Amino acid sequence: MSTLDTQSIHAGEPNPRIEGAVSMPVFQTATYTHPDPDAPPRYVRYNNSPNHEALHGKLAALTQTEKALVTASGMAAISSALLSVLEAGDHLVAPHSLYGGTLALFSDLLPQFGITHTLVSTDSPDAWRAAVQPNTKVLYGESITNPCLGIPDLRGMVDLAEKHELTTILDNTFASPVNLRPASLGFDVVVHSATKYLGGHSDLAAGVVAGSSEHLQDVRQTTKLLGGMLDPHACALLHRSLKTLGVRVRKQNATAQALASALADHNGVGQVHHPSLASHTNHGRAQALLDGYGGMVSLVLAPQADVNQFFDTLSLPLRAPSLGGVETLVTQPIHTSHKDVDPADRRAMGITEQFVRVSVGLEGTDDLVADFVAALDASLSG
Ligand SMILES: *Cc1c(COP(=O)(O)O)cnc(C)c1O
User: pTM here?
Assistant: First the structure.
């Protein structure tokens, strides 16, 4: 089984199939009979139901790691991964361009456990190096940043961690395993919000932690105690979704790239952020590291464009936070993901009222491009 598409269909599936069922049945039971006292008990919170085990096998294959674990949400994956590595007195280093929930975890919850952090302002190993302290244990990052879609120096991050014997944890939600497998770059632990591309239909919440058997043993124990396990029904939904991961994400990559290049020259647009564009700051790095440029596009409308008129005219995209689903979603980060960021920091990142983030769905590419062009035309008509 070599390609991701083949693995997404066949990896982790029970062999032989249970009662001949082609698709994995849902084991809607909390506990299992335990006739052999020497065997480990099966219990739904221990993440060892047949639905969990099939999913773990598939996810380990897709992420190219030894082991994977599903969790109740992306935040459950992130908190379990961090708390399985960090102890009181430890310190972590991360860039400040992180998912808001992760930043809040660092600043509001981890200090209660005696864990401190330093946020660096640029995604460069020099900045990370300067922030490493004798008690630093973890370098934490995201493979594609929100909402400017920057790509940090991921190889530099792994090299630095090796030098200081730090554990690297990477949130690969925006890239998905279709576009990047961070374990192959040397990252120790990879986390995903499976609510996004892995689930892919905006109809479930889930998370994934993947890595070596050694790391995952600790993460499993932490998850078991924190209790953020995925319900068997949600396991089955995620399992079903993973089978179309490659087809979905490649189509989203292609539409996002077409949309980015079609809109880059429109008078209503000041700037388009997409790693496929030669104008993107990290285009070279994206070419070197990614198999696809991703389904997220950010538009900065021109100063003369009326952003309300733009939203009112768009007919296909839904105005909603989150990403990675089959429906195209549009948001203004200033009112959603970056609502709580200091206004001066936001301005420095170029995040204003005119900044619109697009999660490209699976609608027809030409239909979407035409819809965006019509909305931009309308935004200039006032
Ligand atoms: C959404 C998201 C999360 C949190 O995931 P939930 O499933 O909502 O808990 C973490 N990281 C990134 C990059 C995200 O986009």
Answer: 0.97
Beta strands in 172-231 (DSSP E): 189-193, 207-211
- Residues 6+ positions from 2 with CB-CB distance below 8 Å: none
Of 97, 98, 173, the residue with max ligand 1 atoms within 8 A of its CB, to mutate for a pocket test, comes to: 173
203 Cα to the center of ligand 1, angstroms: 14
Ligand 1 atom at minimum distance from 206 CA: 7
DSSP codes, 100-153: HHHHHIIIIIGGGGT-EEEEESSSSHHHHHHH--TTEEEEEEESS-TTT-----
Distance 121 CA to ligand 1 centre (A): 21
Distance 302 CA to ligand 1 centre (A): 29
Closest atom of ligand 1 relative to the 322 alpha carbon: 1
All domains of the chain in start order, with CATH: 4-242 (3.40.640.10), 246-381 (3.90.1150.10)
Q: For the segment 158-194, what is each residue's pLDDT rounded down to a tens digit?
A: 999 999 999 999 999 999 999 999 999 999 999 999 9
Q: What is the pLDDT of residues 354-373, one digit of tens each?
A: 999 999 999 999 999 999 99
| Count of Cβ atoms closer than 10 Å to residue 181 Cβ | 21
SS3 46: helix
In three-state secondary structure terms, 345 is helix
